[in-house]
Design brief:
Elements (H helix, E strand, L loop, with lengths): L2 H10 L4 H7 L7 H11 L5 H7 L7 H13 L4 E2 L5 E2 L7 E7 L5 E5 L9 E3 L1 H4 L7 E9 L5 E10 L4 E9 L2 E6 L8 E3 L12 E8 L8 E9 L6 H9 L8 H9 L13 E3 L5 E4 L8 E8 L2 E9 L10 H9 L3 E3 L2 E3 L4 H7 L7 E11 L5 E12 L2 E4 H9 L3 H6 L4 H21 L8 E6 L5 E7 L3 H23 L6 E3 L5 H12 L13 H11 L5 H10 L5 E3 L23 H14 L9 H31 L6 E10 L2 E6 L5 E5 L8 E4 L4 E4 L5 E3 L3 E10 L4 E6 L3 H6 L59 H14 L17
Parallel strand pairs: 13-20, 14-21, 28-33
Antiparallel strand pairs: 1-2, 3-4, 3-6, 4-5, 6-7, 8-9, 8-11, 9-10, 11-12, 15-16, 16-19, 17-18, 19-20, 22-23, 24-25, 26-27, 26-32, 27-28, 29-30, 30-31, 32-33
Length: 822
């Protein structure tokens, strides 16, 4: 066989040739073929050798070089000192993403967790060469003193930070900027002629011109002066830049949105079912401005008809256009207190795509037939034109159903029968939820009430009423039908998946529950119904909040993926997001997929797995940013409460102390281990408790404590507590400063038929795993349930802090790290 034939056969036998042909006009050898070639050859290969072996023509080399470069950045390839391409596995290198810590050390999280399940510790010396978020290649260099694998940096694959936000500091004539993201521990040097005359203490945006190396610190130039730290709204400006949230639309996207007519045109009705006479209504929060969904229900035979109409965003946002590119980059709308960063320009999000009352709007409809037991028997999807008959709020609908407000009942007399129909159907669907075994965790959502200066005046609890739950059930039904429709028609899309607990977490949960006399059914693969049964058994106990919290922590985080594995928390075999295309990019993709099937076509996206990872990332990014803003606002609120005493609940137990959530003010802070008593305290991770070695004093998750606020740090958004009472008293008592009797935490179920919850401030991570986020004005509802809230990087920070500082748990009088107010 000639050499030329061999070369042709290699490229002709590309296992991903069809995929490459679908994605690119001039298909190249796939990444898989390049990796297979290097593996088969068994030696490093130069670029010229790869060209010959894969028959890369001269006119293809520029494009192919970009592919090789991308594979380098992704850690699939590496160049040696001679410039030849190597497989990292062959030279024992591990690629991953760097996560920094405020104390100067960090971790590399490997890309391939199956090959390298443990994060790799990077000491302060290694971290001087990289920044948080960078992608890097490391070589294992042994283990550190705590037994963790430790790495040595070999190469930085990709720099994550092109810009950063920070505070100006000037010392001895040198201007530096300290990053607001404390995971970036290096200060950035600013040459005197590139500082824009920024004043000391001001918040600025810096463009990095040189990255850290073994010879120099990072350098940059100031490109934007945001203002002073305490300026109103500065916390949001910082969060936007710290988390690299896109917050300015491309001018082309704005122009495209504003060029649309302000009203629906008659020509747009073509091919749509006319539902303008149907009594569709929207039900949202008082502060909502974008209305994704409208609902209608009516009796039909022995069952019901439920119509869920969703704004037809895909009609206006086409794949690849300017609006689509901006929507993809943002991934979702971000809801800060008092400010929204929308996924789409306002002309669409609050205008043409919002189902405002008394105006015609284009929509996609899920029209369902539901039997007398509350089971969806049939459904169909179709494009439609509608006209919302009313913009209702949860508060008004709940009041109408309760019937206590005569004036309101008279005002909406015409609408009351429709609301009652929705409520009757909701009751039926609720029974199916219980039969299905969906996991329902109890919690209290909160809302910030602001004063005229833009700061928190007070924090109040928000109770989910029946109107919230009614809309949630309608949205769940439509989302399930969407998933079923796409599966039956074999159309790829993004599913909302939620896997069951990992074996490790399940074992830990069984160990903990066993101490209370409870077991978790289901063997090695428990179902949501097993969790739900356990919840029913514990909900009336005084320690129900503790047990529920441990159950919640055993669950995984929900993500987007084209691989359907079901939704554990909701107990669905298939689930997707269809109901919020104005504010979630995955929903927009699902609309396009459904439309394609309805029209007898197929919707092709470039890479569904990459889309799933991107959308999951943007969701976590939004959660992290809103958490930062909320934490800072709560710290600002607590500034004048230093020295005050509060009752609270232990919301987290770590090796360096207890996180305590305060009653009434719904703020969380750290009670450091050195403030627990004059003893050596041992952290028992499995039992979620701290135990005094000498005294036997125990502090457990869910315990009630009385604490004093001793420090509030706005710069780090952290609050510190001490126990009320002397340390000697704490050492001598088995339960120092614990509140007994009726102050023990009780079930916090928010249903009206249940007892009122005890005063216990829930942790930020202990949001309802089934309650939609729509119950908080600061966050537009996702109308999803049964999921563990995204812990994001804040939780990762705390976890890493616990790992590194766990050694303090058995020592006295060490320095006190501060804890984020959650």
């Amino acid at each position: 066989m000639s050499t030329r034939k061999t070369k042709k056969s290699l490229r002709a036998n590309d296992p991903q040739a069809q995929r490459e042909a679908e994605l690119y006009q001039t298909p190249l050898p796939s990444r898989e073929l390049v990796l297979q070639l290097l593996s088969d050859q068994g030696v490093p290969l130069s670029a010229d050798q790869i060209y010959v072996l894969l028959d890369i023509g001269h006119d293809e080399r520029d494009i192919f070089n970009r592919r090789l470069g991308a594979m380098e950045r992704d850690g699939q390839l590496m160049r040696n000192r001679k410039g030849a391409f190597c497989l990292p596995d062959k030279i024992h290198l591990i690629a991953g993403t760097v996560f920094g810590h405020s104390d100067g050390f960090g971790f590399l999280v490997p890309d391939d967790k199956t090959k390298n399940p443990e994060d790799i510790f990077l000491g302060p010396k290694e971290m001087t060469l990289v920044m948080h978020g960078d992608r890097a290649m490391v070589r294992l260099a042994g283990v550190d003193r705590k037994g963790r694998p430790e790495g040595k940096l070999v190469e930085v694959l990709e720099r994550a930070n092109k810009t950063l936000v920070g505070r100006v500091i000037r010392a001895q004539g040198v201007t530096i900027v300290a990053a607001e993201d404390k995971r970036i521990s290096q200060d950035v040097l600013i040459p005197y002629h590139l500082d824009m005359d920024a004043q000391v203490g001001q918040i600025v945006t810096v463009e990095l011109t040189e990255y850290p190396s073994s010879h120099s610190s990072p350098m940059g130039k100031i490109v934007e002066i945001l203002g002073n730290y305490a300026d109103s709204g500065m916390e949001i400006e910082i969060a936007l830049r710290k988390h690299h949230l896109p917050h300015q639309f491309n001018p082309a996207a704005v122009k495209q949105a504003e060029d649309f007519p302000r009203t629906v045109q008659a020509k747009d009705y073509k091919g749509r079912k006319d539902l303008r006479d149907l009594a569709l209504i929207t039900i949202d929060g008082e502060t909502a401005r974008d209305f994704d969904d409208a609902v209608f229900a009516e009796p039909q035979g022995k069952g019901w008809r439920l119509v869920v109409a969703i704004a037809d965003v895909s009609f206006y946002v086409q794949p690849g256009d300017a609006l689509d590119k901006d929507a993809y980059d943002r991934g979702n709308s971000v809801y800060f207190p008092r400010r929204v960063i929308p996924m789409l320009p306002e002309a669409l999000s609050n205008g043409l795509c919002s189902l405002n009352p008394d105006v015609e709007r284009l929509c996609m409809v899920c029209d369902m037939q539901i039997d007398s037991q509350g089971v969806v028997k049939q459904y169909q999807f179709y494009p439609s034109v509608m006209l919302s008959k009313a913009r209702m709020t949860y508060t008004k609908v709940a009041a109408l159903l309760q019937g206590g407000d005569a004036a309101l009942t008279e005002e909406y007399a015409w609408l009351l029968p429709h609301v009652q129909n929705l409520n009757s159907l909701f009751r039926l669907m609720l029974t199916q939820r219980e039969k299905r075994g969906a996991v329902e965790f109890e919690s209290t959502e909160t809302m910030m009430v602001f004063n005229d200066n833009g700061k928190i005046d007070k924090i109040v609890p928000v109770v989910r009423n029946d109107a919230h739950k009614l809309i949630e059930e309608c949205m769940l039904a439509a989302n399930v039908c969407a998933a079923d429709f796409l599966l039956k028609n074999e159309q790829t899309c993004l599913f909302r998946i939620h896997e069951g607990p990992t074996p490790e977490k399940l074992e830990a949960l069984r160990l903990f529950m066993g101490e209370f006399g409870f077991g978790v059914g289901g063997g090695e693969n428990p179902s949501a119904k097993d969790y739900a049964k356990l919840m029913q058994r514990i909900k009336s106990r005084p320690d129900a909040q503790l047990l529920q919290t441990v159950m919640l922590r055993s669950m995984q985080q929900a993500v987007y993926s084209p691989d359907n594995v079901g939704h554990f928390g909701l107990a669905y075999e298939a689930y997707t997001h269809f109901t919020s295309p104005i504010r979630r990019y995955p929903d927009l993709l699902v609309h396009r997929a459904i439309k394609a099937v309805v029209e007898g076509k197929r919707y092709q996206a470039k890479d569904w797995h990459q889309l799933g990872m991107h959308c999951s990332m943007t969701e976590r990014r939004a959660d992290d940013a809103t958490r930062d803003v909320t934490n800072w606002l709560k710290c600002f609120y607590m500034q004048d409460k230093v020295g005050e005493v509060f009752s609270g609940t232990v919301a987290g137990v770590t090796g360096f102390g207890l996180f305590v959530a305060l009653d009434e003010v719904y703020v969380e802070g750290l009670l450091h281990v050195t403030d627990l008593g004059n003893d050596y305290f041992i952290h028992d991770k499995a039992r979620h408790e701290m135990v005094g070695e000498r005294t036997g004093v125990r502090y457990r998750l869910g315990d009630r404590l009385t604490v004093k606020v001793v420090r509030v740090d706005l710069e780090t958004s952290r609050i510190d507590f001490t126990l009320v009472g002397s340390m000697e008293a704490a050492s001598e008592s088995a339960e120092p400063a614990l509140l007994g009797g009726d102050d023990k935490p009780k079930s916090s179920r928010s249903r009206p038929s249940k007892a009122a919850p005890a005063k216990a401030a829930p942790a930020a991570w202990a949001k309802s795993a089934i309650a939609p986020a729509k119950s908080t004005p600061a966050a537009k509802p996702s109308r999803k349930s049964g999921e563990k809230p995204a812990a994001g990087k804040a939780a990762a920070d705390k976890s890493r802090s616990a790992k590194d500082k766990g050694r303090h748990s058995a020592q006295k009088n060490k320095g006190k790290p501060k804890a984020k107010a959650r």
